[in-house]
Fold this protein.
Amino acid sequence: MGDWYQQLTSHPLGRQATSLLGLPGPAQLRRGDDPPPGPVLAGDAGKGRLGAHLRRVLGDLHLPLRWPGDEATGAAEDDNACLVLDATGLAEPADLLSLHTFFHEPVRRLAPSGRVVVFGGVPAEASSPAERAAQHALTGFVRSLAKELRGGATANLVQVARDAEGGLDSTLRFLLSGRSAFVDAQTIPITRSATDASDRSRPQADRVALVTGAARGIGAAIARTLAADGAHVVLLDLPAQGDRLTESANRLGGSAMQLDITDAAAPTRLADRIAERHGRLDVLVHNAGSTRDKTIAGMDAAAWETVMAVNLSAPLRLTEALLDRELLSPTGRIVAVSSLSGIAGNRGQTNYAASKAGLIGLVDALAGQVGGEATANAVAPGFIETDMTAAMPFALRELGRRLNSLNQGGQPVDVAETVAWLAEPGSGGVNGAVVRVCGQSLLGA
Amino acid sequence: MASTPRKAAVLAANRIPFARANGAYRRASNADMLGAALDGLVARTGLQGERLGEVAGGAVLKHARDFNLTREVVLGSKLAADTPAFDLQQACATGLEATVAIANKIALRQLDSGVAAGVDTVSDAPVALNDDLRRLLMDANAAGGPLEVAALLPRLRPHHLVPEIPKNAEPRTGLSMGEHAAITTREWEISRDQQDRLALASHQQLAAAYDRGFFDDLLTPYLGLQRDDNLRADTSLEKLSQLEPAFGTGEGATMTPGNSTPLTDGAPTVLLGSEEWGRAHGLAPLAFVVDAEIAAVDYVHGHEGLLMAPVYAVPRLLARRDLSLEDFDFYEFHEAFASTVLATLKAWEDPAYCKERLGLDGPLGTVDRTRLNVVGSSLATGHPFAATGARIVATAAKLLHEKGSGRALISICAAGGNGLVAILER
């Protein structure tokens, strides 16, 4: 089911009608590797420690760059497409005025699908109460700014720990690109520096990725994106989904594995296959999920157990088996697909929300356990246009689509791109994060 | 030149579920089914775009346009288009003969890798022109001009409209395979109860194998089918005993649709290769193809049962390998009819028969029934003629892989009085 409302508002007559009614118009989001449609305005609020790093990354992107005090490149009349602020230097509440100074004018003329990226420090690392207050203030600021932006623009906050400055590259590139289309108002921690020797256009070249639940929907999109990034993707799903898996695997040049991950023998079978075929695993994406929606009063125990077995127990057991056999490579990336339900809660989904919140706990633990430059992170999709959401009742579906700052549902590829960013060899600086892919949903915010 | 024979390994396999005739696959051609099975194999092994040594396959019921069936399927598959292929046909032994052919070429270092396959459909069977009409048309084609063609018109007859439909009958006896088997069943005094018990075990063991995920890496769903649709997981001795006999007459009519294989559509594939090739592609051997023996019996004049050739082939193979019948961990015997398997086992235990017909000193031996068709066989899965051999090779190889070591004996009887047997080891 397409987004009829978006189609309506993109037609001139429809747009007139909806403006008369005062209804919001969902923008066509910039996606993929399309460059920002305009220059980057960058600057710092106070004495930030990221200047050199930001200049390096922005320079590599070959975008017109405007940095106060520097000579601007690109045509002077173009609207800015990206506003990048180093706010790590904010040391006390009075310094926060520099946010107003920096954004007050440029935010009025931000190009469509523009990007705001604010870099802060980690509040817990602040050396004084004043600094911690100032740094924490950034979270509320960015979330509010995200709600004020229009035209498919997003705002995100990146908190860079001390000595982790070298770990921000892949994250800044991701946030400025169209790949982060539905990631809005997030706080992303960079906890350490990272090395990145990978080919920018094929970051997953020579790497092996496993995606569970890969036959359809978000899983299929993740497999497609990782394959496009150069990975050999092992697509795993239930044996009953084998024909879809075959089709996808053959199209992507990956391989199909039919396995019920809740089977007692599944961890061994998976580890055996990875060991035998590939010798190691570089990317492990726990995407397989199942729902059996009922309020707790009306739910039978089987519905509880099915959901828990697929969504939580299986990822735990599969990961343990792979780690026990030392099959996760030193630059291994574990990404769990959680859900907004797991953060905000959802009526009729006690089982599902518990399992998806459990995944966040699992990722927390794994982040400390994987070692080396390996990482474990979670993504939490909000309303994504899939077969599952297409089957929802009309009113609920519309509500799901509109209750976010971008006024539309996300696409499976938006989740996939977020997973792919976390899975990049260069994303070693992001560990233990939970990134929502929800267009700043009002739920659980 | 390296000429020492090497071992050919079974590296992977894939088939589509088998479907009863005129059911789930009634719109699928042999090429469609074989293509689906091959694409599933490529997906499982990640061999997209790879040039394999050769693909061997075939069908028993085949349209004239499918003369190069296997090569055409390869061209439409995800394998590299420069993967060669050939068709072969040995009735129900086709898939096993294809396996032996590819394995031998690998052993002789003529190939490093290959696929053995088979396919059959009775739902999309070739229906030919009436033979008299066909001759008339050939004459018309050879005629010198319109007048000569016109002169042939009076030879047209109403019966020419009746097409030639493929028959499940031996050309030289006119008897169907079931009717032949009924003769053997009577001669060896195989009871209805014994046959029904074998059929029951086949269904129960196949169902259990599906339930424990045995086929997760041997099978890919196709056209909505996830398991063989002939499988009756809930059948019972009581249900089987109530079926009306289908072959034989009077008291000796013990063969029913329950203890005989139904007409079936389907296609399996097996990937074979040298150990080195397998290693280079991340594929560890499931088992190795060790040896094979073909035999035939004179069922037309020689008073031997049509489906009894494996009874002759096995002792010759055992003698060559210096093995006894008891030296196997798995016996994978094609269940054309339950009575065929039972007559085979009985013949090997019969001292007089073994002496007179097989030229042995005494009985060949006894097959431990707990090692026979342990995950079911043709009675439960169904039997698309040319497909069965490769299905059985895959099953035997997987069983050996699961066990970690051992030896399996494969036996397949075929139309024309042929019988092909083989040994797999790990």
User: Anything to note?
Assistant: The longest strand of chain A covers residues 110-120. The interface with chain B takes residues 232, 239-243, 245-247, 249-250, 253-260, 263, 265, 276-279 of chain A (CB under 8 Å). Chain A has a mean pLDDT of 92. Chain A has two domains: 29-190, 208-437.
